[in-house]
């Protein structure tokens, strides 16, 4: 995967880069996977509704799962670069990471959550998890992230003159 030259600052180096699995990314962003699981326990009517939601994902969810979406872990920050009709770039300095949650999945790629943002409206209220969604090597990326954070704080504690 190529990284834009202008995306990295002076002295910044890439430790890991990757992309989400498009199908699983769309399901998790839409939330139908959770709805589908709930429907299995709620009865036949809900099962059919969940199956319909699972199979007929809206175009918005597919647009968010654009194969050009990139994840980047550097020695200074985490970057989620989403392209397409809802393009945005989230850049989180390692000093601002307050939580790291590894959501291991048995039958699909795992998620590495490191940012919660407030969200109001349907389909969810409260907090929305952000991070590297639907990545194949989440355990390794979590280890790299923890090492980068440890390195950041050990370097900063020595002061600028050392």
What does this structure look like?
By secondary structure, the chain is an alpha+beta fold. The protein has one domain (13-157): PH-domain like (Roll). It is 36% helix and 28% strand. The chain contains 5 helices and 7 strands; from the N terminus they run βααααββββββα. Strands 1-2-3-4 form a 4-stranded antiparallel β-sheet, with helices on one face. A hairpin with a 6-residue loop joins β6 and β7. α2 runs antiparallel to α3 (44-55). The radius of gyration is 18 Å and the shape is globular.
Poorly predicted sequence stretches spanning 5 or more consecutive residues: none
Q: Treating each run of at least 4 consecutive H or I residues as one helix, how many helices?
A: 5
The structural domain count equals 1
Q: Which sequence of SSEs, written as H and E, runs from N to C?
A: EHHHHEEEEEEH
**Structure class:** alpha+beta
Shape: globular
- In the CATH scheme, the class would be Mainly Beta
Helix % is: 25-40%
Average pLDDT figure: 75
N/C terminus separation:
35 Å
Strand content: 25-35%
The number of distinct β-strands equals: 7
Main pleated sheet = 4 strands, antiparallel
CATH fold annotation: PH-domain like
- The CATH architecture is Roll
Task: Supply Rg.
Answer: 18 Å
Strand order of the largest sheet: 1-2-3-4
What's the quick description here?
By secondary structure, the chain is an alpha+beta fold. The chain is built from 5 helices and 7 strands, in the order E-H-H-H-H-E-E-E-E-E-E-H.
